Amino acid sequence: MKEWNRTSVTEFILLGLAEDPNLQIPIFIFFLVVYIITVTGNLSIMTLIRISAHLHTPMYFLLSHMSFVDFCYSTSITPNMLANVLSNKKTISFAGCMTQLFSFAAMGSVEVFILTGMSYDRYVAICNPLLYNAIMTKKTCAHLLGGAYVLGFAHSLLLTLCMLRLSFCDSNEIAHFYCEIPPLLNLSCSDISLNVVLLNFVTGSFILGPLAIAFASYAYILKTIIKISSASRWTAFSTCCSHFICVTLCFGPLIFMYIRPKSKYGMHHDRVASVFYSVIVPMLNPLIYSLRNKDVKEALRKIMPPKVW
User: Fold this and answer.
1) Residue 246's closest CA among 192, 206, 282, 203?
2) In this structure, are residues 82 and 32 in contact, taking their beta carbons and an 8 Å threshold?
3) What is the DSSP string of the chain?
4) In degrees, to the nearest 5, what angle opens at C-alpha 47 toward C-alphas 142 and 139?
5) Which is it for the CA torsion 77, 190, 155, 250, positive or negative?
């Protein structure tokens, strides 16, 4: 910590997704549409869960917080990216870059732990249905959510503080469309060994640990579903299907970005993966839960005019 941020860089240049000027307008339109759908979908899920009494259950309580996190996650990245796409000066201040890094890292980490909590909720619902109300109490949900937010923000704070200790002396061009950690490390002119260890070990643990819990939960769920009658099997499976899809969409790109061998793919592949998990996944999550979930569709029918359906 002796060389705490003796940086001469006051702002960074975000190179974005493509240098071809002809692609800027299509990229802007695409991501604007995605962002509008993301905001509308997640705010709708949050509102629907709040006003629909039959959705006041532990699973939907956790889902409403996941929608809130997806909204914050996308908002920490997409508006700045949209502004830069149409701007000749694609810059972000050093303070703004560190704030963005903290925000998206915090929201991404919190979502990982909320998905893990939802896996536990589905495990209890399928494997111990008679004890569900006794186990998944308001206190249990509060502990799951509190733990998700505390661990997520602690992880993000640790990453940000370790980034602040680095010096940036020469190049300020980030080969990305937001302040992602790996391209920032490539720009540093100081020793990044501590940051690399932190990124590999701590972030790897924060991804693989929750993933192991989620898959263990689904292993027990699958074992239980196989034993029940065929008439009830699909009903039990359908209650977990939406969540399992969200787990796969969330963890897959994160593993590609942070756990794969760094020499296997180039920065172009990292940008593609980043687009998927930072922009596309927050849009898909509310769509998955609204299109595949009978309770959500029933709640929508009750508040929508009949002609809509």
Assistant:
1) 282
2) yes
3) -TT-------EEEE--S---GGGHHHHHHHHHHHHHHHHHHHHHHHHHHHH-GGG-SHHHHHHHHHHHHHHHHHHTTHHHHHHHHT-SS-EEEHHHHHHHHHHHHHHHHHHHHHHHHHHHHHHHHHH-GGGHHHHS-HHHHHHHHHHHHHHHHHHHHHHHHHHHTS---S--EESSSS--HHHHHHH-SS--HHHHHIIIIIHHHHHHHHHHHHHHHHHHHHHHHHHS-HHHHHHHHHHHHHHHHHHHHHHHHHHHHHTS-TTSS-HHHHHHHHHIIIIIHHHHHHHHHHHH-HHHHHHHHHHS-GGG-
4) 10
5) positive
Chain-centre distance for alpha carbon 37: 16
Distance of CA 258 to the CA centre of its chain: 14
Task: Summarize pLDDT for 71-106 with one digit per residue, the tens.
Answer: 999 999 999 999 888 887 888 999 999 999 999 999
Q: Residue 69 and residue 55: Cα distance in Å, rounded?
A: 19
pLDDT in tens, 279-304: 898 998 888 877 667 777 777 777 76
Measuring CA to CA, how many Å separate 275 from each of 131, 194, 225, 269, 283?
A: 41, 27, 35, 10, 11
d(CA 299, CA 143): 27
| Interstrand relation of 173-174 and 11-14 (parallel, antiparallel or unpaired) | parallel
The pTM for the full model equals 0.88
Distance CA 169, CA 184 (A): 12
For 16-39, letters b (16+ CB in 10 Å) and e give bbeeeeeebeebbeebeebbebbb
Which residue matches tokens 């992602």? Answer: 180
d(CA 115, CA 281): 13
Residue keyed to tokens 């509308």: 40
